[in-house]
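CO-FOLDING WORKSHEET

Operator: S.A.
Ligand of interest: zinc ion
Run index: 148
Mode: holo prediction, single chain
Checklist:
[x] sequence pasted
[x] SMILES validated
[ ] output reviewed
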Amino acid sequence: MKKRLREIKEQLARREYRLTPQREAIVRLFLDWPGEHLSADDVFTRMRDRHPDIGLATVYRTLELLAELGILQKLDFGSVRSQYELSPPGDGHFHHHLICLRCGKIQEFEPDGLEELEEEARETGFKVIDHSLRFYGYCLECRRADQE
Ligand SMILES: [Zn+2]
Ligand SMILES: [Zn+2]
Ligand SMILES: [Zn+2]
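OUTPUT RECEIVED:
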């Protein structure tokens, strides 16, 4: 985890940004909750106890900056509020996402299955560096709530 934080610090420095205490606190939150997809409100709520000095506006600005620099991935799904997650280190491949249109929950979906398709894309002469896949629908909890 220390190593990842150092990498992020270097990533910021390359674009002439400093890892300020506020930025570090936000990055650490994502490192502490691996695999979570957090909205600005989620980040703000989880930080409030330990960092009462960091306001919601700062959270928004910082998340936008970190997303712009590729440190975070911004997940924007129309009506569902934006959520952020830590980018995989290096040029690692992202997992895929299951997006609930009712409650906005985003689940990760590990099985890939796109290798063959990617191979076909390559055969056109296109250099593929990544792909992403999103499934839209209703999560188990929302479906259960519907049946009650
Ligand atoms: Zn749901
Ligand atoms: Zn994700
Ligand atoms: Zn994939």
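REVIEW:
The pocket of zinc ion (ligand 1) is lined by residues 100, 102-103, 105, 138-139, 141-142 (CB under 6 Å).
The chain has two domains: 1-92, 93-148.
[x] output reviewed
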